[in-house]
Amino acid sequence: MVQGETLMETLLIKERDKQADEIFKKVFHKQLKSYTDVIEMSKEGITKASLMDFVRFLNFSPDQFARLLPITLRTIQRYSGKQRFSPTVSEHIIQLVFLVGKGIEVFGSLEKFMSWFNAPSQALGGNVPSDLVSLKTGTQMVMDELGRIEHGVYA
Questions:
Q1: Residue 66 located in a structural domain
Q2: φ, ψ for residue 84 (rounded to 5)?
Q3: Is 65 buried (19+), middle (13-18) or exposed (0-12) by CB count in 10 A?
Q4: What are the Antitoxin Xre-like helix-turn-helix domain coordinates in residue numbering (predicted)?
């Protein structure tokens, strides 16, 4: 438990985000203990090497993944492996980890989630979920839709 964090908050992150926690271990080689850890990781910055590990985990090309971020592929290419992204970009990458984790929980596998993630969704106004997540609002819309699917509420 982290100072200023309740036991309930610590337990909730473990219970809610099991898949995201597994991705954090595989990609960032860190155990997700609390949302405070997420804030610290964002402030510290995600390295390009860790980002590329996440890209490989998703089986995306760098170009495909760059479309999910609020920066261009060219900007990503200019970074060295150990160079860190800004807190804003790092936070976005971390939110994508949570999104993918939720998608795996809801659909049962990365492959099934990716199939949904890359297809138009009537509930999202006919938009393709992956086209929405380069912005925070779009990421939240997709996360909300995953929650509705998880609970059997289809719009």
A1: yes
A2: -105, 145
A3: buried
A4: 37-97
Helix (H, G, I), strand (E, B) or coil at 59: coil
DSSP 28-52: I------HHHHHHHHHH--BHHHHH
Task: Work out whether the CA dihedral 48, 49, 54, 60 comes out positive or negative.
Answer: positive
Q: Please tell me whether residue 118 adopts helix, strand or coil conformation.
A: coil
Residue 1 belongs to some domain of the structure: no
Stretches in the chain below the pLDDT threshold 70 = 1-16, 154-155
Phi/psi at 2 (nearest 5 deg)? Answer: -95, 145
What pLDDT is stored for residue 18 in this prediction? 82
2: in domain: no
Work out the end-to-end distance of the chain between its first and last CA atoms, rounded to an integer number of angstroms: 38
DSSP at 121 = B
- The predicted structure's pLDDT at residue 28: 86
Domain that holds residue 133: 7-150
Q: Which amino acid is at 50?
A: S
